[in-house]
Design brief:
The complex is a heterodimer of chains A (about 550) and B (about 160).
Chain A: E1 3-6, E2 9-12, H1 19-25, E3 49-52, E4 59-60, E5 71-73, H2 77-90, H3 108-117, E6 134-135, E7 140-142, H4 152-160, E8 166-169, E9 176-179, H5 192-196, E10 202-204, E11 217-222, E12 231-236, E13 249-254, H6 267-270, E14 286-289, E15 292-295, H7 298-314, E16 319-322, H8 329-343, H9 373-378, H10 385-396, E17 402-406, H11 416-425, E18 428-433, E19 445-448, E20 457-460, E21 465-469, H12 482-490, H13 502-512, H14 521-524, E22 529-530, H15 541-546
Chain B: H1 7-17, H2 27-38, H3 45-53, H4 57-66, E1 78-83, H5 86-90, H6 93-104, E2 117-122, E3 134-136, E4 139-141, H7 146-156
Parallel strand pairs in B: 1-2
Antiparallel strand pairs in B: 1-3, 3-4
Helix pairs in contact in B: 1-2, 3-4
Classes of the chains: A alpha+beta (about 550), B alpha+beta (about 160).
């Protein structure tokens, strides 16, 4: 392997890598616009110029392969001057409209100008006028004047989404990024082009002018839009809440994980957070009084639920539970333990398949729109849709006294008639969930639970990778994590579960479930760990988890 | 409007494709074949060429919009491309252009109503020793004078 020196640091680099890749591995920062580790290399923008000893001209770090004995200077006078000149060219036609540009604050033109530029414009000519604020897709707005023609978005559409919508037409300073005539950028992964745009040329309709980015807080999490479990950052705006228009989550951004989603996320997942503050969100405990659901409190409802459970037990009547693959491993484990120890329920279904087959592809979008079906399987739940139908049939025929349902909108997967007779067949229906639906509307009690951005826990994705979610915002109203609701019930009936934090549940879970054995929150880290049926961790996984993750926007 | 390649064009393209290590490398000569057949390259031809070269249509459009020699709309039978770069300009290119403007009533990029002439002002064509010069369709005509321009227009305009 070639040994090279960058800024006096000796590095051994894999053959075939380029200077910028070697520098990235060594933590040496070389500026870039067009280079992106998830895309092909084109050497378009020239901002990554470095000085290489014995080479007469400055070289582009992104495109120059390493050679044994190479000595590279990224901070020499010549290299800095070269970058300054490139920057000056890139800004010749740039409108410098930073005060009204949505990219301001996360714009590499701004950043590098402050780092290398700081010159006065020498141009006497007027700047070119090009199209501004043009919607080029359902979610994306294009400002051609701000574009520096780095082609990252074009390469994304060619290489990752493979949809080929974008191109650069005309030449010289008339060159302009545009969609092919008659096409819009509406592929299932379209908004990634906004993430990788290093300047303010491509901005996101939903986010535009919502807030300045420097007011945002970032929390690492996992997308719950499907069973892929793409790694994400949840961006929240607590510093300027009045800008949020009632929304506590401002946006989701993909977070790099080479084993799951690389740098990307699908549009469906990106906008999957809206239920967190939707109008149907449940924030209050409710109970049915004279046929009507009324607001109540935990203090009032918990004893009533306990009494109902107690009386069903004492009279040897059947209690049934329908779990949900939207619950975390912790929620599901606590429920399983409580149900089997105290309620005498050993078989619990979790799956309600939608009537129509949802969209999926061979990249990130999976048919199973739940984040934790795999985890439910590992924890001993019955993930067969038929098991849920059997449960509803039992309820409809009057065989169930008390039914606890988590999250599900049963009508999404079963005929309305069956759902109606099942829910009226049981004497008491307890609904635990975060959002109202046709099922909660027929419940006796509604216990509000947190959404994934309001709690801690883990999900197991389709491939068995256990990944951590973290609390980004406070729970809405009275809502509590599902495991807390179950823990609170267990304190009054049967054997109390001694959990104080989600991590306590996880510790108990790893001791009692083979697939998760040996895991801990710190070992899962930001990258996740793969669970195996036989209980052994895959080699090298812990190392991968320990590796520093980087964000897709970097 | 639909566009189709003639049998002759197809044969030429098939031969062109054998000259390159991959199909997309033949983009420029193939586009010239299309332009030769049709006079210009209509938008409808883009997907067709793209299919032959096994690339997305957007890649073809990028190429043909980059090069000014590829035309995207119909022009006159005679394409007068008058050089306006330094050498020609010093030797009176502006007078030649003005003469055409007045004689034919067309300016840069315009076509006469009888579709006989199109005028395009172009940058250096590399024939400075014969400045001022123009390219008439595929031929260079140098050492232009007012009489020579009149002659060209008179002869071609019939």
């Amino acid at each position: 392997m070639p040994t090279i020196t960058i800024d006096g640091k000796e590095l051994t680099v894999e053959k075939g890598k380029t200077i910028i890749q070697a520098a990235d591995e060594a933590g040496i920062d070389i500026p870039r616009y067009c280079y992106h580790p998830g895309l092909s290399i084109v050497g378009q923008c020239r901002i990554c110029l470095v000085e290489v000893e014995k080479m007469p001209k400055l070289q582009v770090a992104c495109y120059t392969p390493v050679m044994d004995g190479m000595v590279v200077h990224t901070q020499s006078e010549r290299a800095r001057k070269g970058r300054k000149d490139v920057l000056e060219f890139l800004l010749v036609n740039h409108p410098i409209d930073c005060p009204v540009c949505d990219q301001a604050g996360e714009c590499f033109l701004q950043d590098y100008y402050m780092k290398f530029g700081l010159y006065d414009s020498k141009m006497l000519e007027d700047k070119n006028k090009k199209s501004k604020a043009v919607p080029i897709g359902k979610h994306i707005v294009l400002d051609s004047e701000r574009c520096i023609l780095c082609t990252r978005c074009i390469r994304f559409c060619d290489e990752v989404s493979k949809t080929n919508e974008l191109g650069i037409f005309h030449r010289g300073d008339h060159a302009e990024l545009l969609p092919y005539p008659g096409k819009t950028v509406d592929n299932p992964y379209s908004v990634n082009v906004v993430d990788i745009c290093p300047v303010g040329a491509l901005t996101e309709k939903d986010f535009r002018f919502r807030t300045r980015v420097w007011y945002l807080d970032e929390t690492n999490s996992v997308c719950t839009g499907c069973s892929t479990g793409c790694n994400i950052e949840v961006h929240t705006n607590k510093k300027r809440e009045y800008k949020n228009e009632g929304r506590r989550v401002t946006r989701l951004k993909p977070r790099f994980n080479k084993d799951v989603n690389e740098y990307w996320i699908c549009d469906e997942g990106r906008y999957s957070f809206t239920y967190v503050d939707a109008a149907d969100r449940l924030g209050v405990v409710m109970k049915r009084v004279k046929g009507e659901l009324q607001e109540s409190t935990w203090a009032e409802v918990m004893p009533e639920v306990l009494t109902a459970l107690q009386s069903a037990k004492e009279n040897n009547k059947r209690i049934a539970v329908l779990g949900s693959p939207k619950m975390t491993n912790e929620d599901l484990f606590a429920l399983k333990k409580f149900a089997s120890q105290t309620l005498g329920v050993s078989q619990m279904p979790v799956t309600v398949l939608p009537k129509e087959k949802p969209f999926s592809d061979d990249f990130l979008i999976r048919e199973d729109k739940n984040p934790n079906t795999k985890g439910a399987g590992y924890l001993g739940y019955d993930t067969d849709h038929k098991a849920t139908r059997k449960l509803l049939d039992d309820c409809a025929s009057g065989g169930v006294e008390l039914l606890i349902i988590f999250h599900h909108d049963l009508e999404a997967g079963f005929e309305t008639e069956l759902v109606k007779s099942a829910l009226s067949g049981a004497k008491t229906v307890v609904f635990v969930g975060s959002n109202a639906n046709t099922t909660s509307a027929r419940a006796t009690y509604i216990l509000p639970s947190c959404t994934y951005v309001e709690k801690e826990g883990t999900f197991t994705n389709f491939a068995g990778r256990v990944q951590k979610i973290n609390r980004a915002i406070e729970p809405l109203g009275d809502s509590l994590p599902e495991w807390t609701i179950i823990r609170n019930l267990s304190r009054k009936i049967g054997k109390a579960l001694a959990y104080f934090e989600a991590e306590d549940v996880f510790k108990d879970l790893t001791k009692n479930t083979a697939a998760f054995s040996g895991m801990s929150y710190s070992a899962i880290g930001d990258g996740g760990l793969v669970a195996e049926e036989n209980g052994k961790l895959k080699q090298g996984d812990a190392k991968a988890a320990a590796q520093k993750t980087e964000t897709a926007t970097a | 409007m639909s566009f189709e390649l003639t049998k002759e064009s197809k044969l030429v393209i098939d031969e062109l494709l054998t000259r390159y290590p991959n199909k997309r490398a033949a983009a420029l000569p193939v586009l010239h074949v299309v332009q030769k057949q049709h006079g210009y390259i209509p938008a409808e031809a883009e997907p067709l060429v793209a299919e032959i070269l096994e690339v997305p249509p957007v890649k073809i459009r990028e190429v043909l919009m980059f090069y000014t020699l590829f035309l995207q709309k119909e022009i006159g039978k005679n394409h007068l491309q008058v050089c306006r770069s330094v050498s020609c300009w010093l030797r009176g290119a502006d007078r030649i252009i003005k003469q055409i403007n007045e004689k034919l009533g067309i300016h840069d990029g315009e076509t006469t109503s009888d579709k006989q002439f199109t005028l395009t002002e172009v940058e250096c064509l590399g024939d400075c020793e014969h400045a001022p010069m123009m390219q008439l369709n595929d031929d260079y005509i140098g050492d232009l004078t007012a009489e020579k321009v009149d002659e060209i227009i008179g002869k071609k305009g019939q």
